[in-house]
Amino acid sequence: MRERVLHTGAGGLADYEVLEMLLFAGIPRRDTKPLAKSLINRFGSLAAVVEAGPDALEQARVPQGCVRLFATLGPIAQRVAQGARPERLVLENWDSVLAYCDVHLAGCTGMHVLFLDSHNHLIADEDMAMPPALAQPRPDLPAVKQAVSRLLQRALALHATSLMTLYLARDDEPVDPIMAGDRAFATALGRAGALLGVDVHGHMVVGQGQWRNFSLGEQPR
């Protein structure tokens, strides 16, 4: 059986064979197959054996070394499962975005795009290089259209159903002029996103201990 595991992995083993290998760690130099089969028959499955309490295992004549081993397997399996499914951030309002900035974007500057799924879970946070023509008080219309198109193409590639844009100002950048200059871009993005089924929650500027935001159709605040 050890040769099978080395060549093909443990995925093809029956429950009693996996249990046989586990028992061998606590019962060296003995044939553990009879006990493994007996435990499967008694408890019904490998999972039931591992989850059985110490008293039940001792009554089934499982050696103390194996009882202690089985007691650790459940917590280990839960920890592995949690690691395989990391908790995804939920950005469902401006307060959660500000908290995200404080924790994950401290010291960052420039434009970020937060791509979200249908439950507002964060899929990706990506930098967006702003063309100089877009950062002018009166942005160049072709530059706005190009930036909007590029951003929405990225949203579709990520299978994002919504997004929000975020500008992190430098220490020497006042937030109000930035918000005024970004309004044309954010408005165009919201209108284009609606045509493609991508909900644009809005745009936020953060800097100098202040923040401003607006959603499509709202005045900055």
TrEMBL record:
Which superkingdom heads the taxonomic lineage of this protein's source?
Answer: Bacteria
Kindly list the GO molecular function terms attached to this UniProt entry.
Answer: metallopeptidase activity
Q: Is DNA repair included in the keywords of this UniProt record?
A: no
Do you know which InterPro entries this protein is assigned to? RadC_JAB (IPR025657), UPF0758 (IPR001405)
- A Pfam family of this chain: RadC
Q: Give every RadC-like JAB domain span.
A: 92-216
Q: What is this protein called?
A: DNA repair protein RadC
